[in-house]
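Anyone able to model this chain together with fe (ii) ion?
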Amino acid sequence: MALHTLCSRVAACDWAGLAATLDGQGWARIEGLLGPRDCAELVALYESGRFRSQVIMARHGYGRGEYKYLAYPLPEPVAALRTALYPHLAPIANRWNQMMDIETRYPPAHAAYLERCHEAGQVRPTPLLLRYGPGDYNCLHQDLYGEQVFPLQVAILLSRPGEDFTGGEFVLTEQRPRMQSRPHVVPLAQGDGVIFAVHHRPVQGSRGPYRVNLRHGVAALRSGHRHTLGVIFHDAS
Ligand SMILES: O=C(O)CCC(=O)C(=O)O
Ligand SMILES: [Fe+2]
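re: yes, here you go
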């Protein structure tokens, strides 16, 4: 995978449009972030890559299926994606924090943000590859790994819905204060990324913005195998 192609794909996204969509619904899709060959390379990494740990989800009550956290140094395409996406997300994160009266602001470059994580004792990489088989699912959760939290993350679907697998929809729920939770089903094709809020997002109410609490997960697969790349911007303790 040509890294400059990856970086120019990220740069070519309509970031003003994505920011507006994120403000409106808490998630936004980047279509065709990765090509079919890029996806196949990342799927192959599930077997051949270097990882710091493996999680069998059923053992922890997280669902069914498994995932592996990549080790540092990250594979080049994953490192490049994370570095290239971050500067576009940091201004959105800063604006959201301002709306939610949260004091934290994020530096414009990911390297500087990682230094902050490392100073807080969060030094372990969080990008991960996930693998689901028939009947596997991922319970609603939030990827929080310490006090340092970057409020947006990206998941990229590496498999072809309808061909490699059926079912396995990416879902989000929004828990609103004193109201019932709202579900979202995110339609993804192979290579599409979804940007979404890790835990909170501001929603504009009639008396100013309020906070909603988000969780994400994956519905059970009916058949086949599904792989995902998760890009989380804070390191873990
Ligand atoms: O497999 C998925 O689509 C969900 C992945 C996930 O939970 C994550 O990237 O944090
Ligand atoms: Fe997750």
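Residues 3-231 form a domain with the Jelly Rolls fold (CATH 2.60.120.620).
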